[in-house]
Write a structure and sequence with these properties.
globular; binds magnesium ion; binds guanosine-5'-triphosphate; 4-stranded antiparallel beta sheet; single chain; alpha+beta; about 40% helix
Length: about 140
C-alpha cells in the first residue's frame, strides 16, 4: 500500500466541494489517514511548489494557494498516487475528462480544485512537509 498527499485547494474550499472530493476518494476505496483544514504560510507554499520556483506563474501560484484555507489530507491505498491523479484528471481542467474532479468542477489551470502528489518521492516529501508527525 502507498500514501499520497491530497489538497483541496482554496478554490475548492470556496466552491464548497470538500465533501464531493472526499466522497470520490472514499467511493474509490482509498482510505483517509490524516485530514486538516488550514491556511498555508508562504514558506510552506514555496516549499510545496519548489519544483515550479523558476516558472513564470510561481508568484501567482503561491498567492493563490496561500489565499484562503485549504484541506490537506493523506490518502492511502494500493497505488494511491496514480489512483488519486486518475480521479483528479488532467492539470488543465478544460482538457480534463468529464467524470474527473477537474473535468467536472473547474475551467482554469490556475484554479483546478485539487492537488495530488506525482511520485513516491514527491509524496514522501509533501507528507513530511504537511504532516511531520506522521513520520
Ligand atoms: P498539482 O497536483 O497541483 O501539482 O497539479 P499537477 O501536478 O497536475 O500540475 P503541475 O505540478 O505541473 O503544476 C502545479 C500547479 O500549478 C497546477 O495544478 C496548476 O494549478 C498550476 N499551474 C500549472 N501551469 C500553470 C499556468 O500556466 N498558469 C497558472 N496560473 N498556474 C499553473
Ligand atoms: Mg504537480
Amino acid at each position: 500500500s502507498e500514501r499520497t498527499l491530497v489538497l483541496v485547494k482554496p478554490d475548492g474550499v470556496r466552491r464548497g466541494v470538500i465533501g464531493e472530493v472526499i466522497s470520490r476518494i472514499e467511493r474509490k476505496g482509498l482510505k483517509l489517514v490524516a485530514l486538516e483544514l488550514r491556511t498555508l504560510a508562504r514558506e510552506t507554499a514555496e516549499a510545496h511548489y519548489e519544483e515550479h520556483a523558476s516558472k513564470p506563474f510561481f508568484g501567482e501560484l503561491v498567492e493563490f494557494i496561500t489565499g484562503g484555507p485549504l484541506v490537506a489530507m493523506v490518502v492511502e491505498g494500493p497505488r494511491a498516487i496514480e489512483a488519486f491523479r486518475s480521479l483528479a484528471g488532467a492539470t488543465d481542467p478544460v482538457s480534463a475528462t468529464p467524470g474527473t474532479i477537474r473535468g467536472d468542477f473547474a475551467l482554469e489551470i490556475g484554479e483546478n480544485i485539487v492537488h495530488g502528489s506525482d511520485s513516491t518521492y514527491s509524496a514522501d516529501r509533501e507528507i513530511k512537509l504537511f504532516f511531520p508527525e506522521l513520520g
